[in-house]
Specification:
101 residues
């Protein structure tokens, strides 16, 4: 699975970076950047809904930490699944050999 899919906020819109979204929520963008991002929000209803939900969260200053933790947990879960899949594939031939014998 590509790293883009492991990053929670990056999947909202490929034209907008995660850092830009977080800066927008923390009101750290210039008026021009803010206007540009809002134009993207108007074009993408899913992204607009996601940003509305994020902006209504209590402790908006901790969103960066929450996003980091979500991405970390997601990566760990995907890595575990990948290891299980590899292990299952490597164990399978032995099962076939024992069934044949």
């Amino acid at each position: 699975m590509s790293n883009d899919l492991k990053n929670i906020l990056s999947n909202l819109n490929k034209d907008v970076e995660q850092e830009k979204l977080l800066e927008y929520l923390n009101r750290q963008l210039t008026p021009e950047e803010q206007h540009e991002l809002e134009a993207h929000l108007n074009d993408d209803p899913f992204m607009s809904d996601a940003m509305d939900g994020l902006s209504e969260m209590k402790g908006a200053d901790k969103i960066s930490l929450m996003v980091y933790q979500l991405n970390k947990d997601l990566k760990q879960q995907l890595d575990k699944k990948k290891k299980k899949k590899k292990r299952a594939i490597t164990e399978t031939p032995w099962l076939y050999y024992t069934a044949i014998i």
